[in-house]
Amino acid sequence: MEEQYTQHIPPPCDEQVEVLHADDDVLVVVKPSGLLSVPGRFLKDSVVQRMHYEYPDAAVVHRLDLDTSGIMVLAQTRQATSALGRAFHDRLVSKEYIALVYGEVEERSGTISLGIRPDPYNRPRQLIDNEAGKSAETRY
């Protein structure tokens, strides 16, 4: 199956990336909704591109989806990149999301455990694939 990519280009994001913390090892920033975490195929404006002006060694160790706003941690050294990458990979980092939903959620809590992978016909969206997808768990 030949992968096909959409040519989705989001509208420009005029919001600034706010730096909450900066030291020799890490940056902690607020990513606005509508801004890529890393440069895309067609659009290069992203958190890491913007941070490179003032922090040329900044490296992304995790990403947030285009439409998701929130806190991102970027590494500033190889050691920090390795340590943070390992922490995210080993799921030692706790992440919390707040979602606005339409309608009413019947159950007050639960867990969704499914395999997901990129949808080659509708990037950047993901699709459920319990055989070839990466395991993902959402607790609510």
The helix/strand series, from N terminus to C terminus, equals EEHEEHEEE
Q: Strands of the biggest beta sheet: in what spatial order?
A: 1-2-4-3
Tell me the β content: 25-35%
Largest sheet: 4 strands, antiparallel
End-to-end gap: 35 Å
| Apparent shape | globular
Give the mean pLDDT.
90
Tell me the Rg in angstroms.
17 Å
How many helices? The count is 2
Instruction: Provide the helix percentage.
Output: 10-25%
Structure, described:
- This protein has 140 residues and is α+β, with helices and mostly antiparallel strands.
- It contains two helices and seven strands, in the order E-E-H-E-E-H-E-E-E.
- Strand 1 and strand 2 form a beta hairpin.
- 11% of the residues are buried.
What's the quick description here?
By secondary structure, this protein is α+β, with helices and mostly antiparallel strands. It is built from two helices and seven strands. The strands form two sheets. Strands 1-2-4-3 form a four-stranded antiparallel beta sheet.
Topology:
Blueprint (H helix, E strand, L loop, with lengths): L17 E5 L3 E6 L15 H6 L6 E2 L9 E6 L2 H12 L21 E8 L7 E3 L5 E6 L1
Antiparallel strand pairs: 1-2, 2-4, 3-4, 5-6, 5-7
List keywords for this structure.
140 residues; alpha+beta; 4-stranded antiparallel beta sheet; 3-stranded antiparallel beta sheet; 2 helices
